[in-house]
Amino acid sequence: MLEGSAAGSLPPHALMQRAGLALARFALATAPHAQIIWIPCGPGNNGGDGYEAAKHLKQWGKHPVVTSLVSTTPLPADAAAARQGAVNAGVAFADRVPDAYDLCIDALFGIGSLRNFEEPYATWIDRINAKQAPVIAVDVPSGLDAETGTASALHVKADFTLSLLTLKPGLFTAAGRDACGEIWFNSLDIPEPATACAQLNTLPIPATRAHNTHKGTYGDVGVIGGACGMTGAALLAAKAALHGGAGRIYVGLLDPEPLQLNPCQPELMFRAPTALAYESMSVVAGCGGGPSIRAYLPDILDRSARLVLDADALNIIAEDASLQNRLVLRKGRPTILTPHPLEAARLMGLSSTDVQANRLKAAQSLADQFACTVVLKGSGTVIAAPNTCPRINPTGNARLATAGTGDVLAGLIGAGLATGGDAFQAACTAVFRHGQVADRWNAATTLTAQRLAQAL
After folding, report:
1. What is the DSSP letter of 89?
2. Number of neighbours of residue 184 by Cβ within 10 angstroms
3. Pairing with 212, which of 32, 136, 352, 430 sits 20 to 30 Å away (CA)?
4. What separation in angstroms does the CA of 390 have from each of 2, 156, 191, 386?
5. What region, left, alpha or beta, does residue 154 occupy, with left being phi > 0 and alpha being psi -120 to 50 degrees?
6. Quick one: which of 134, 135, 152 has its CA closest to 143?
7. Residues in CB range of 445: below 8 A, 6 or more apart
8. b/e map of 44-80 (b: 16 or more CB within 10 Å)?
């Protein structure tokens, strides 16, 4: 479960003591040979965690060096007590960054709000990011919003983040994954909250295919797209649906001179878009559709039993109120939108910056607006549906940042829908699998969309 914050049953000073001890133990486990450990501490409770960790590290024979500001604003009571504990333990305090150190623990601001950092904090963060030594962030890298994953222009880029009490959604989406490095979690022995603002997406145990089945058991997928010059997008979606497990794949190309056979994938069957039985299949519409798909969208929206809308289909719906109404009227029939941030922004009448500022909120708002499942693509893809706790997907990486990978995802989702399964679960499973291929890919070989589809 992911939650922005959690209130434990312990008093704050006891929580801080647990947090400091957990942090010190994590530092030992992460960098057992580190001797000089620089711990920049901020003016709040995140700094208090740093003081507590410094005390333990000193007692265990390490040489922590704490930098902090003497402020006219007093520390919170618990942080002040933690600082005094570090002083009593003989921890070294300095007003400048040590010339050399073996490990850095960012205990500056944690889940505090984003800010333009004043001196000396800006200089300290620059030094942290110079990566003279490994960096551990306490709870959240300083400058990263724990709720949304947005980051200030200057923010800590950690090698490890130890999230305390709860996992925060901002660690896993938007700028979070680049800022956090490897994410670890310590509950501090506090029970998880009863409710969460999101969950991490996981891959369910795959169902075993029974022997007594046939191609019809696994459903039909119809891919509508591939206008002139963009045939490849539709073929990639169709190939992904085939490798994703659908029983039969039909391709309705919008190119005036469509293919009749794909020699590299002869299993694909080509038909005129108007000849496809939308009522009995999972339709994937929009991949490479261009303006040509507009004429087919009313029928697709009205008749499709199950529907995945991608790319140009989304852009055209965004500018046509009558198509938006048709989309809303699909309520109750499995429908999945797969926008990237700019496509989502067009559908919502916002900017892509607005969408990226709170990806969870944007995905949920879009799902509620059109009464369907939404897959908001990007770093930490968000899957949302009405009256459902959204998921943030932990798989995938920048190898997916190449043309056609979104078409592959749309086709894979279509295959998941083809068997008549739940739309939200089909989307969650496909997004996880799609990213998992990229995570397992040989780094020495470029991951193209075609290879991605084959690897499914």
Report:
1. T
2. 17
3. 430
4. 10, 27, 21, 9
5. beta
6. 152
7. 451
8. bbbbbbbbbbbbbbbeeebbbbbbbbeeeeebbebbe
The three-class DSSP label of residue 269 is strand
Helix or strand (DSSP H, E) at 422: none
d(CA 424, CA 429): 9
Verdict on whether the full-model pTM lies above 0.90? yes
Per-residue pLDDT tens digits for 327-358: 999 999 999 999 999 999 999 999 999 999 99
Distances (CA, A) of 181 to 157, 177, 185: 7, 6, 13
CATH homologous superfamily for the domain 215-455: Ribokinase (3.40.1190.20)
CB 80 within 8 A of CB 17: no
Task: Classify strands 135-138 and 335-337 as parallel, antiparallel or unpaired.
Answer: unpaired
Q: Which two tokens stand for residue 324?
A: 């938006």
The yes/no answer on whether domain 12-196 falls in CATH 3.40.50.10260 is: yes
Whether residue 340 contacts residue 356, with contact meaning beta carbons closer than 8 Å, is answered with no
Give the residue extent of every domain in the chain: 12-196, 215-455
Parallel/antiparallel/unpaired status of strands 103-106 and 182-186: unpaired
Query: Of the candidates 344, 343, 453, 351, which has an alpha carbon nearest to the alpha carbon of residue 402?
Result: 453
Q: Within 10 Å of residue 328's Cβ, how many Cβ atoms?
A: 14
- What does the DSSP assignment read for 180-207? H-EEEEE-TTPPPPS--SBEE--PPPPP
